Amino acid sequence: MPLPPLVEPADELTIDEVRRYSRHLIIPDVGMVGQKRLKNAKVLVVGAGGLGSPALLYLAAAGVGTLGVVDFDTVDESNLQRQVIHGQSDIGKPKAVSAKESVAEVNPYVEVVLHEERLDEDNVLRIFEPYDLILDGTDNFATRYLVNDAAVLLGKPYVWGSIYRFEGQVSVFWAEHGPQYRDLYPEPPPPGMVPSCAEGGVLGVLCASIGSIMVTEAIKLITGIGEPLLGRLMVYDALEMSYRTLKLRKDPAGEPITGLLGDYEAFCGAVSEEASEAVKGSTISVTQLEQWIKERENGERDFVIVDVREPNEYEINKIPTAVLIPKGEFLNGSALEKLPQDKQVVLHCKTGVRSAETLAILKGAGFADAVHVGGGVAAWVNQIDPSQPAY
Amino acid sequence: MSVSVRIPTILRTYTDGAAEVTADPGDGATLADLLETLDQSYPGLKGRVLDDSGNLRRFVNVYVGDEDVRFAEGLATPTPAGASVSVIPAVAGGC
Questions:
Q1: Fewest CB within 10 A of the end CB: N or C in chain B?
Q2: Taking the model in full, what pTM does it have?
Q3: 8 Å CB contact between A173 and A158
Q4: Can you tell me where the transmembrane regions are (chain B) (predicted)?
């Protein structure tokens, strides 16, 4: 179902703009009027990361007149494998600022508005209000549901994309004309069940595959051309090189959204109740662990360190003497027979979330004195052994 | 003839990395039968799609063909021979 154009055309294009956008202007479906709509459009990109990077660059190049950027993070070396809006000299700089500088280089006619804050229940409606369209490229479920609910309340459309390893999903949500995110996924998964790309990795160029679909949909909505992805879910698999579209519908049993939730972090949960119960009094710091290892060398203490990450992560860095038993083996039960019954077990992962979930399983299996390492190997590398790489 | 099932990346730990698996739940089988049959070959897979009460989890969608079974007959949706089933879980990554 085609939709009317989202944005009214600007009064005119300057001669410089006509020259710049000539390859758009000679496409009959876009033409002068479509380009003027892009010029008048205000698009907000939530997250200047993997999806936000290509999205901002192409929205800017296409001539979207006003681009908002929501990001409170700074550029890290490990971002550069995929976040192409940032470069080597931007490391340590706020991502929003770095994005603005790149956009200015791509297209000086674009006005960039920075929102260097964490999107939350208190600011989301104020931040979204001036924009015609929102692109959601964030990295966690709490923000996903927050963006959705705010967009529904304000009656705004948004383009949604998500990525993991070689696979991506994209759709357009607009409650006034079709489904919204809660029609697709009424509730978030429990914490720990679905890994993020920080945990599981992401093919850098996948960001461009999905980000470019998001921008294509944004341009179509703004100019009112083509068939929007509203009511359809695009699923892309880079290894198979396949795109599939699946039908989405409004959920007749869905609860209407009448206001924002009080606390989206709590709705999505950082760790499960079982895990937060398990870690009470059973969490040690990396400095404690370093001390414990010394005591073990002196024969004053005995324990085994178990790394519950994946093999590829274990190759990057490790805590000395740790043996690798990925969390999945605890979930299916096969890990338990590999553990010594007569020694205390010390679990760790990258940052302490997966090890907390694993600790709950282990305690449930009777390993009452098991502990986990707060902050995981990331804290170990940061505080104890900076000679190893972080990721 | 069997039913083909698309496995998303995050559930491929249950299928030895396979992106697509097949199962033969028999004539007149439903999605519930198919999940039972799959769980025999890939233990644990069913538990990622159904909750402890045996209902479809609300953050996983199952499609038979290109129809979401929530809008068909849920777990009673027929999965005839030759059907193509897709499991689509919620993924939040954008980083």
A1: N
A2: 0.86
A3: yes
A4: none
